[in-house]
Amino acid sequence: MDANYIAYEALVVSREAADWAVWSALGTWFSGIITLVTAFVAFRALQTWKQQERHNEKKALKAALINYRNLLVMMPETLEPSEPDCRQPALLLQDSMNQIYLHVTLMEVTFDTSEIGRQFHALYNRHAEYMQGQAHREQIAELLIPFISEPFISGAYKSKPE
């Protein structure tokens, strides 16, 4: 074989290798860009999921408050802890308060700095007084109705301080 022919073939192979290297580099850049776009979309989806989860927590709290109100309507004006007929309704009302407490705790509400926390704390204390026979049903309703009426699901006020 001729040396010029061998050099020519080496040149052709080198040119094809360079073409493949260019395409490989472009593919790597394209893959990197797609990875960044995917990471951005995943981050946005995670943020949306967090917002939906907070929204669901607030809806669950609102539902627990309404359930408590529905039970409270059926309770006697004042609870007599020693009376046997009050035992079952009192347990149901306490279970409903425990559900409210559960949702407030899951929301990680601070009791001293957030509006939801302050309202829950006042309601919880009044509930304890009622369960001991020291408060009237209307006194609980005075705290409960404004709590239910607050538009905290739509974000009118924050459950956590900024």
Automatic annotation (TrEMBL):
High-level lineage: Bacteria, Pseudomonadati, Pseudomonadota, Gammaproteobacteria, Enterobacterales
Highest taxon of the lineage: Bacteria
Source organism per UniProt: Leclercia adecarboxylata
Keywords noted in UniProt: Membrane, Transmembrane, Transmembrane helix
Protein name: DUF2489 domain-containing protein
Annotated TM spans: 20-46
